[in-house]
Here is the input.
Amino acid sequence: MLRINTLSSVIRRYSIRSIPFTKEDLKGDDKYKDLNDHYSDLFTSEETQVSSKSKENSLSDDIAEINAELNELYGVESPIEVQNVEQREQKPQEFPIKEQDIHHDIQQDIQQDTQPIPTLKKESLLDKIKSNTPKIFISKSNNPFLNLAMEDYIFQNTPVTNPFKAQRLIFYTNTPCVVIGKSQNPWRETNLPYLNSVGIPVLRRNSGGGTVVHDLGNVNYSFINSKESFSRTFFGSVIVKAVNKRYGFEKLAQNERGDIIMALDKKKISGSAFKVTRGKSYHHGTMLLNSDLANLKQALNKRQRTGIMEFECRSVDSVPSPVDNLGLPNHDFIEVVSKAFQKMYETPVEIVEVDEFHNEEILKIAENLKDWKWRFGSTGSFKLKLNHQESGTLIEFHVEKGILKDFKTNKESDFEFLREQLTRGLELKFKSDEFVRFIKGDLYEWIGNQIDGTH
Here is the structure.
């Protein structure tokens, strides 16, 4: 606000100590009297006392008028207006705000400004596996190594409590592969030359049982429960009842070994394997729905080697059985069995779709499953006898943990170079591309084709 504060300051600004001209008494000339008096008053020195009350009031009015004009020019409120505003501000409000309300609002504003915005943490696969409630896991991958690794990862991390509450049901479908049991011999159980020719891998699982063939027309399931509740037949019966209910008649049955078979012709449609350890157990199996049965047969065909190849070993043998397809679409089978599993428990059962395959532990397990030392090198000691009828050559290979240790033959001259390598201590895997090149003549190719066809 612009304001001239005192009258004396104005007087001091415009007054001088003496009048700049001599004042004469112009007697009788009254027409100049008012003008002379005006200038006389205007230039009166500081020592000159202004005693006229009317003049002081007049000057105050002039100052007030100047102040008003300045305020109007600069858009500033006058002292009177400011005083009125101050009086209004001091006037009590009709609806006073309570002190505690003000304090609450301030605290709330502070909290809103300083507290971080909460975010929901997405549950990881491990979080879901470790939860102590029943769950269903469905893999989104078709990679057999990743799926077997996922199955093992879930089994390892499923919590054990008393009573056991963390039952698991796992589903996965693989691209074509052959899976042997933990204690089986791949050279004996599979047709390795055929598998290598079409690029079908051999996997070794951590559970026992026989050899099975997987493809996209086959759904694999795994039921995890407590060690105390382990049963070779329980979950198979759950599947049989659920599928029969879906068809409305007795489509499936179980045989004396617990295998799931077609009720009418007794053909096997599901092979099972089991594992019990560390307070937990699992029963996993295949379900032939729309598999390539011709490929399955070729992958396990041993008849072509009859009279040519003979094994001496203590590995577990598969039990051959005639097989068939159920004919149900994959998703229908998963839905039917999932609903049966959910009805077994009083609590809601979450379905988890697994696509978290960048998990380091799963990848590590998968790499171990791919390792030749696990797939072939963990095979127990065995002898393989070959009979080349055309040349009359007989040879017997001695293999330990997948490594060729020794051999016997009636044609030593054809194998002298190979003998030399073994005598020198060269470690040769029992793979045809590693050792048959040390055999002379055309016999090396025939031997390579009988073993695995990789030469």
About this structure: Residues 1-26, 45-52, 91-97 have pLDDT under 50 and may be disordered. The longest helix spans residues 53-74. The longest strand covers residues 218-226. Residues 7-90 form one domain.
